[in-house]
Write a structure and sequence with these properties.
alpha+beta, seven-stranded mixed sheet, two-stranded antiparallel sheet, 8 helices, 9 strands, 22% strand
Length: 254
Amino acid sequence: MEKDTVSENIQNEKNPTRMLSLVSHKLKTPLSIINGYSEAILSQSTKEKFSPFTAKALEEINKQGTKLCSLVDKLLFFNKVESFEPKDLAKKTINLKNLVKTSANDAISHDEETATVSAGSTVSKKGTFIEIDCPPSLEIQADEELMAFLLQELISNAIKFNNKAEKVIKVQCAHHGDSISISVRDYGAGIRPQDVNKIFETFYQVDDYFTGQIDGWGLGLTMVKKILELHNGSISVISDRGLGSIFTVSIPVA
């Protein structure tokens, strides 16, 4: 091994964020090839007349490859956000209700495979209902990409950590003079008191309520907290085990 390579490896070990970024980039190319070829083969399924086992195997390969690609993208985004400083924010005036609706649509689309239905202030699909209560004229000064990620992450978690047949999530926005609040409420599993202070830690996951493993890196809420710090905002959590949780974001008015 050359001296420069050894030196680079030592530097990576001392800088976990850089190491994660390098690993993520290394995974992108093989994942793109796996997903591309599996999609191409699946598109020929009617002509090739695959056996049920082969068709199912190809679908699962493509599904898991797509899921892994999404996880890698999230890891790359984490590294991007971690390096941000307030001066790096692309702040603009954003209509909050429109942003919440877009984020809710994105969150619910990732949860199911069918088309999203949006009617008025309710976004719903296959037993999942997101009710939005936000003044139409309410605006915030923020980085739109980061704030959209924040809202999608909170709504996605409200869907994901809920094993009920019918999932109801309520998003409420309000103006409080010098700040704007956004609350995301679910009626799912809730969080144990001893876990509430840990959920914003990097790579921490609460998944013991479910029999299966929760997808993800345990980075979403870490990024939510970082994004709020960049905007001089804050987040609080109220949760009752078995009754659900309320995540409330507070952002100062510029």
